[in-house]
C-alpha cells in the first residue's frame, strides 16, 4: 500500500516515513521545496522507488493536494507551523486550518483509493485552565485559547495563537466529515511535547524544531531554583508518536477517534534525575538539585491510545538520553 505524508521533512514526519518504509509501505511525501525532498531522498536512498516526494509549495491553496492524493490508500497530514515568533495569529491559523481543509478536499475529490486520513493534532487542542487534579481526555476541547486569540489577536500570548491554530484545524477536520457518507474515515493524534532523536535536516542550532530545542536548551542552560520543580509539560518520544500514527492507520477501531499519545508529565528535575539514573549516564548533563518537591502537574490520559493502538511509551530517561546524544551529534559534528 502507498501512504501520503504531508510535511514529510518535519521532525515527527521523517520518523513516520521511516517506520512506514520499514513496515513495507510505499511513501509519497510532500515538502515545500525540492531541496527538502532531496534530503529525504538521500536519507531513504536504499528504499529506491518506494519513497518519492512531491513539492507542494502552498498547502493552503485550493486543490493543492489534488495530484498528491491520487493512488494512495491512506493520508497522514502532519504539516503545520510550529513557530512562536509570528506577527499575527493568521500566520499560524491559515496554514493550519486551510492546509487541513485543503488535504481533506483533495481526498474527497481525488483520493478514490483512500481508506483513512490521520491528522496530527496536538494536546494544544485540548489544554484549558482547569482545577488542580483534572485529568485531560479526548472529550476536552481548547475553547480558551480560541477566545484569547479572538479577543487579543496578535497581542494574545504566542502559545495561545499556536494552540488556536491547532484547535481550529482539528475541529475543522471533524466538521468536514460530519454528516457525510465517505469511503474513508478520520483519526486525529494528539501529542504533548515531543522529544527524541532527530532524523530531519538540522544544519544549525537555530534549525532545531521547537520541541527538540526546548529539551536541548534545558540541558545547555540548566534550570535552577523553582524552575527545577515547576511543572514543565507532558511529553512523549518521537518514535512512539510516529508509530502511533502508523498504528492509527492500521487499527480498524481507531477510525473516528481522537487519540492522545502522552508518556507522562515532567518537571526539569525529573528529567535530570532520569538522566542521572541511566546505567551509563551521559557526560556534561545537569543534575539539578535532587528533591521530592514538585508543583502540581497537568495530566493527559493515554488510556485511549493504550486501548486502541496498543502502544507502550519509552521512558523519560531513554528519550532524554537519545535526544541529547542525537542533538550533540548533529550540532557538534566535526
Ligand atoms: P517541524 O517544525 O519539524 O515540522 C513541521 C512541518 O510542517 C514541516 O514539514 C514544515 O515544512 C511544515 N510546515 C510548517 N509551516 C508550514 C506552512 N506554513 N505551510 C506548509 N507547511 C508548513 O515540527 P513537528 O514535526 O514537531 O510538527 C509536526 C506536527 O506535529 C505539527 O502538526 C505540529 O503541530 C504537531 N505537534 C508537534 C509537537 C511537538 O512537540 N513537536 C507536539 C504536538 C503536535 P517546512 O520545513 O517547509 O517549514
TrEMBL record:
Signal peptide: none annotated. Keywords: Oxidoreductase. InterPro entries: Epimerase_deHydtase, NAD(P)-bd_dom_sf, NAD(P)_dehydrat-like. Coiled coil: none annotated. One of its GO terms (molecular function) is oxidoreductase activity, acting on the CH-OH group of donors, NAD or NADP as acceptor. CDD domains: AR_SDR_e. Residues 3-260 form the NAD-dependent epimerase/dehydratase domain. Belongs to the NAD(P)-dependent epimerase/dehydratase family. Dihydroflavonol-4-reductase subfamily. This is NAD(P)-binding protein. It comes from Calocera viscosa (strain TUFC12733).
Amino acid at each position: 500500500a502507498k501512504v501520503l505524508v504531508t510535511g514529510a521533512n518535519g521532525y515527527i514526519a521523517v520518523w513516520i516515513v521511516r517506520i512506514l518504509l520499514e513496515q513495507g509501505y510505499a511513501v509519497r511525501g510532500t515538502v515545500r521545496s525540492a531541496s527538502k525532498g532531496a534530503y529525504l531522498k538521500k536519507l531513504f536512498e536504499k528504499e529506491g522507488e518506494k519513497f518519492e516526494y512531491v513539492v507542494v509549495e502552498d498547502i493552503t491553496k485550493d486543490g493543492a493536494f489534488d495530484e498528491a492524493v491520487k493512488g494512495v490508500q491512506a493520508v497522514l497530514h502532519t504539516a503545520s507551523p510550529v513557530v512562536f515568533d509570528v506577527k499575527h495569529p493568521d500566520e499560524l491559523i491559515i496554514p493550519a486550518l486551510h492546509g487541513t481543509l485543503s488535504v481533506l478536499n483533495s481526498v474527497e475529490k481525488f483520493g478514490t483509493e483512500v481508506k483513512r486520513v490521520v491528522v496530527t493534532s496536538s494536546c494544544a487542542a485540548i489544554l484549558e485552565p482547569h482545577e488542580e487534579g483534572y485529568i485531560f481526555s479526548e472529550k476536552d476541547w481548547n475553547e480558551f485559547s480560541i477566545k484569547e486569540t479572538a479577543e487579543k489577536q496578535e497581542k494574545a500570548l504566542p502559545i495561545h495563537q499556536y494552540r488556536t491554530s491547532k484547535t481550529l484545524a482539528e475541529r475543522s477536520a471533524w466538521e468536514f466529515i460530519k454528516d457525510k457518507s465517505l469511503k474513508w474515515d478520520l483519526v486525529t493524534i494528539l501529542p504533548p511535547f515531543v522529544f527524541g532523536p532527530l532524523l530531519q535536516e538540522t544544519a544549525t542550532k537555530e534549525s532545531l524544531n521547537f520541541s527538540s530545542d526546548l529539551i536541548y536548551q534545558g540541558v545547555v542552560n540548566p534550570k535552577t531554583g523553582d524552575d527545577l520543580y515547576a511543572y514543565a509539560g507532558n511529553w512523549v518520544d518521537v518514535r512512539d508518536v510516529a508509530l502511533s500514527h502508523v498504528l492509527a492507520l492500521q487499527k480498524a477501531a481507531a477510525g473516528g477517534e481522537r487519540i492522545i499519545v502522552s508518556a507522562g508529565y515532567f518537571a526539569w528535575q525529573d528529567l535530570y534525575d532520569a538522566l542521572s539514573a541511566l546505567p551509563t549516564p551521559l557526560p556534561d548533563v545537569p543534575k539539578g538539585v535532587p528533591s521530592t518537591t514538585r508543583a502540581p502537574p497537568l495530566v493527559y490520559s493515554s488510556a485511549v491510545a493504550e486501548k486502541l493502538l496498543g502502544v507502550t511509551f519509552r521512558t523519560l530517561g531513554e528519550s532524554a538520553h537519545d535526544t541529547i546524544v542525537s542533538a550533540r551529534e548533529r550540532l557538534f559534528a566535526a
